[in-house]
C-alpha cells in the first residue's frame, strides 16, 4: 500500500511540474506543498532561516539550477518528501540567479543538486550532493528523519531522563532507609538477647 501511495504522489508531482512548464513557469516553480518555498533573494533566504531557527524547525535547503538535469529529475521526489514531512521547511535556492549564485559559493556549494540541513540553534547539521540513485534518496530520507525530531519528542526524553534520575534517587533513598531500619532492628534484637 505504501509503495502504491508513493507512486501516486510521484505521478502527481510530475504532473504538477508539467503543468507549471505548460503555463510558462519553470519546473522548479511547481509545488502544492505549503512547506516548500523558492527564495528569490539572499534577504528572503535569511528571513526563512531566521524564522525556522526561532521555531527550532528543520530546514532542508536544495540548491539547484534550471539547466541542471539531475536537479529536475530529483524534483518530483523532493515534492513528495515535502508533502510527507509537513513539519519540515523546504527551501529551494536557484544557483542560476547571480545574487543566489554568490550565496551558493559563500556556502561552499560546489555541485548541483546539493542539500544543506539546518536545525534550530545547531545550525548546519548535514550536507551532501544528491541525485536519483537509491542510495542518495535513502540518505535524503534518513537525514530528514534523523533531524526532524519534534521539540516534544526531545522534551519527552528530557522529562523521561529526569524522572529516571528521580526514581533512581528514590530507590537509593528507600534502600538506605531500609538498611538503616534493618540495622536498628538487628541492634535492638541483639540488645534483647543480651538482656535475656
UniProtKB/TrEMBL annotation:
<dbReference type="InterPro" id="IPR013766">
    <property type="entry name" value="Thioredoxin_domain"/>
</dbReference>
<protein>
    <recommendedName>
        <fullName>Thioredoxin domain-containing protein</fullName>
    </recommendedName>
</protein>
<comment type="similarity">
    <text>Belongs to the thioredoxin family.</text>
</comment>
<dbReference type="InterPro" id="IPR036249">
    <property type="entry name" value="Thioredoxin-like_sf"/>
</dbReference>
<dbReference type="GO" id="GO:0045454">
    <property type="term" value="P:cell redox homeostasis"/>
</dbReference>
<feature type="domain" description="Thioredoxin">
    <location>
        <begin position="7"/>
        <end position="149"/>
    </location>
</feature>
<dbReference type="Pfam" id="PF00085">
    <property type="entry name" value="Thioredoxin"/>
</dbReference>
Amino acid at each position: 500500500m505504501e509503495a502504491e501511495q508513493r507512486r501516486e504522489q510521484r505521478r502527481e508531482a510530475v504532473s504538477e511540474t508539467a503543468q507549471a512548464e505548460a503555463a510558462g513557469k519553470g519546473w522548479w516553480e511547481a509545488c502544492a506543498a505549503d512547506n516548500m518555498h523558492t527564495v528569490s533573494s539572499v534577504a528572503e533566504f535569511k528571513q526563512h532561516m531566521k524564522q525556522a531557527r526561532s521555531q527550532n524547525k528543520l530546514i532542508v535547503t536544495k540548491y539547484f539550477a534550471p539547466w541542471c538535469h539531475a536537479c529536475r529529475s530529483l524534483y518530483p521526489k523532493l515534492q513528495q518528501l515535502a508533502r510527507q514531512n509537513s513539519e519540515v521547511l523546504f527551501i529551494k535556492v536557484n544557483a542560476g540567479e547571480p545574487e543566489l549564485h554568490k550565496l551558493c559559493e559563500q556556502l561552499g556549494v560546489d555541485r548541483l543538486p546539493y542539500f544543506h540541513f539546518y536545525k534550530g540553534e545547531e545550525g548546519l547539521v548535514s550536507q551532501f550532493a544528491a541525485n536519483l540513485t537509491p542510495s542518495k534518496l535513502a540518505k535524503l530520507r534518513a537525514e530528514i528523519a534523523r533531524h526532524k525530531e519534534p521539540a516534544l519528542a526531545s522534551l519527552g526524553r528530557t522529562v523521561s531522563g529526569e524522572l529516571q534520575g528521580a526514581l533512581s534517587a528514590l530507590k537509593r533513598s528507600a534502600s538506605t532507609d531500609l538498611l538503616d531500619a534493618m540495622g536498628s532492628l538487628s541492634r535492638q534484637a541483639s540488645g534483647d538477647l543480651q538482656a535475656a
